Amino acid sequence: MTAAQRNCLADALVAGYDVLRRSASAVNAVEATIRILEASGLFNAGVGSRLQLDGARRMDASIMEGRRLRAGAVAAIEQVRHPITAARIVMEETAHVLLVGESATRFARHFKLERQPLPTRAKRNASRAMVRSQGQASELQRKTLRLYRAMSGRNTAELGTVGAVALDRSGTVAAGASTGGVALMLPGRVGDTPLIGCGVYADDAAGAVSMTGLGESIIRLAVAKEIADRLEAGVVPATAARLVLDKLVARMHGAAGALVLRTDGRFAIRHTTPHMCAGYWLGAGKPVVKDKFE
Ligand code: GLY
User: Please, what are the domains in the chain?
Assistant: First the structure.
């Protein structure tokens, strides 16, 4: 983790906590926190999002609140600076949960959400260079790249997710996440982040969960809901996260990190990856920001 990332995470935690201190909702706090991370360009979300293999920046985001189980999400949205806000508007202004692609982008335009310019030439070049150095890619990623080349006749390519959970004074929890996806994505690929129950879940009877990691494995275990179910059964957050993450690794060699918060305020940050840049703040002293949690 760079110093800039550490500072940005601390700023985002303070901003989110300030929202809660003013007695605003957990949803407000989650959105405010994620907006800072999206705008920073320091993480794989919003401004810093990865590009898909065709050079497009398609982003996913979702948000959920635990009192009425309301949720909103966008997938493959483009040219929007804050996909998390688009997800929130889906939750609050529509009868739907998930909008995708060009229609999601048009929806964001309708609500006059701040625009994000198309990826610069420098960003596209960096993305291609990453694909060319595919020596580090897994066999499955190389297969994806070969498939894309065969489909499009083009020879291009490139190379985490941000999230937050919060508990407000009324006892309501919320979870959110926003991402530019993973390395070597086929155009149109959607990960776990906008899928409720996979990338995020929030239920006041259980708690709030936000996931990072390889979406293809997180989706198949519906990880966020699986962790929430354990919270509802009375399991503490650290154990709930560990049980489900261990299953993810054992069953499909998945790689993921989880932010887990129970409605009684107990929380845990756990990951199967060597590092996970994350933090928490309880309102006194300095926010805790680390890249390893055990
Ligand atoms: N967890 C982010 C993604 O797989 O897209």
Answer: 3-118+158-290 (3.60.20.30)
